[in-house]
Amino acid sequence: MTAFLRGANPADGSADGPVNDLVNRPARETARGLADAVTEHQRDAASVVSDALAAIAVHEPRVHALLHVAGADATARAARIDRELHADREHGRPSARLLAGVPVVIKDNIAVRGMPLTCGSAVWALTPPRRDATLVRRLRRAGAIVVGKANLDEFGMGATTETSAFGASRNPLDERRTPGGSSGGSAAAVAAGEVPAAVGTDTGGSIREPAAQCGIVGVKPSHGSIPLNGVVPFAPSLDQAGPLAGTVVDAAMLHQAMAGARNGRGLVAAALAGAVHVDLRGHRVGVVTEMAGLANAPGVLRRFNRCLEQMAGLGAELVEVSLPTVSGALEAYYLISSYESLATLAGLVEHPLLGDEARRRLLVGQQVSADSPSGADSSRGALADAWRLADDLQAAVDATWAECTVLASPTLPVTAPLLGNGLDDPLSTPRTDCWTVLANLTGIAALSLPVGECPDTGLPVGVQLMAPHGADARLYRVAASTEAAMETATQRELRA
Ligand code: GLN
Hints:
Blueprint: H1 2-7, H2 31-39, H3 45-63, E1 66-69, H4 71-90, E2 103-107, H5 134-141, E3 145-150, H6 184-191, E4 197-201, H7 208-214, E5 217-220, E6 241-245, H8 248-263, H9 267-276, E7 284-288, H10 298-313, E8 317-321, H11 329-345, H12 356-371, H13 382-400, E9 406-410, H14 437-442, E10 445-453, E11 460-467, H15 472-495
Helix pairs in contact: 3-4, 5-8, 6-7, 8-9, 9-15, 11-12, 11-13
The structure holds glutamine (GLN).
Glutamine is lined by residues 156-159, 182, 202-206, 234, 337, 433.
């Protein structure tokens, strides 16, 4: 583990050069505001979508967040939603569509009918799928409009979007830097103001990592809470799709729509409750010692600690918890995810157009599977060790719920690294996923909340909040109150 952390190079965050002004940027429109305006007939979906397409045209040359823009399709669907809403009004029917007219982009490892599906890879010239992934169908049923497909690391394998066969996306806050990955295009599209919300996938941190690096909210729901049919698997025991958005409430809106009636119930209500009743009394926040210490860059740690102070100020009790085995989590994650990726991708390992990183993962997977004895000896070998570590972590995390209601850590030990900062050794360059894999290995829900800029680099810092499997509503409740408190604190600081 120390090898990974040594690579997490706090010194990288030089403050020179431009960080696009976070404070004076025009306020992003929220999904909630847009959906309300469309439902109340103050705006029509057609104009919302044409604004999004215009923003995409302005920002894409700079950020390259998208692999496909679905202008005509989105415009036609917006017109259809407007017709439906007007018909509802004429007939006096209430139209309750959670995401009415909200433009979204979908990570390009998720099937959207009639749009290309590349997974960021040149090897996979699939014909555009004829069916939407279930989560896309649910978003559309809630009134969302898909305006494009977002860039990603090839097959989700990476943390910067640099392994995409179609070129890296750039961080809208500083184009010399990565937006993070693998859902980097989704995060960049939201942070640039192209769309208010996006969908990503997270196998080891791929929603939370780019969300933290772009200063937005990203959620890895509890494992299994959103159906993944129509989503190209990376490592099924770890994979989860989830939302990226500018606010906690907006993320909850997408999550609720994608999770469906049973798993999604109450998520938006919980987020709204947290935003309105800004109060954390009764919550015990477990600060994970191993993830909250000097392995993090000093400025990241300062922002994290300030967030904890705000949470305590709202009445939360801070509890120190220890997860000693977390030091082995990243290595276990690499072995398990590489092994599981073979189920879908093994046939591509010789493909001349496969990127180096994806090939390296497949070879690691083949290696561990060859080294793992089957049958009576199946408890030996690196893979068995990795699974044992995941089980131990699960037990350790489960034990913490007796003491705390949520866990907290920085989302990443660093702020967004410069592009081109070493793809050669995935286990030694800045490991932005060393704190995120825990939630994938244990299946719990985790959310990255932007908590302001790193005083050293001027770049966004994210705090990771985690809740037990199935307690996603609790996560939204706590995150929304924390978000409100952090906003007030930041405004106070700016005025001072
Ligand atoms: N950054 C991690 C990796 O490179 C996570 C990827 C993911 O969650 N899809 O594997």
